[in-house]
């Protein structure tokens, strides 16, 4: 999750999601040398970012499902 890149509102640079995680309001831009602020909530609300976050969540959910199924199959195998 943290490795997905997000488009920053204001300067339109790309940053990793981990730079925004568990943060709200204004933060110092993690990508620019010139100090300025970006709004975490607005950045997360940009549609391209929403899309990326949703996509990643779905991927993670699918990963979990297939892993659970696999464990279930292994269990079944050893029970018999
Ligand atoms: Zn910036």
Oligomer: single chain
The average pLDDT is 93
E-strand count: 4
Structural class: alpha+beta
> Low-confidence stretches at least 5 residues in length (pLDDT < 50)?
none
Q: What composes the largest sheet?
A: 2 strands, antiparallel
What is the share of helical residues? 40-55%
Task: State Rg.
Answer: 18 Å
Describe the structure.
The longest helix is centred in the last third of the chain and has 33 residues, at about 45-80. The strands form 2 sheets. The chain has a two-stranded antiparallel ribbon. The chain is of the alpha+beta class. The chain has one domain (about 5-80). The protein starts with a strand and ends with a helix. The protein has 2 helices and 4 strands. A hairpin with a 6-residue loop joins strand 1 and strand 2. The protein has helices spanning about 40-45, 45-80; strands spanning about 5, 15, 25-30, 35-40. The structure holds zinc ion. Zinc ion (ZN) binds near residues 29 and 36.
List keywords for this structure.
about 80 residues; alpha+beta; two-stranded antiparallel sheet; two-stranded antiparallel ribbon; 4 strands; elongated; binds zinc ion
SSE map:
Elements: E1 5-7, E2 14-16, E3 26-28, E4 37-39, H1 40-45, H2 47-79
Antiparallel strand pairs: 1-2, 3-4
Bound molecules: zinc ion.
A few lines on this structure:
The protein has helices spanning 40-45, 47-79; strands at 5-7, 14-16, 26-28, 37-39.
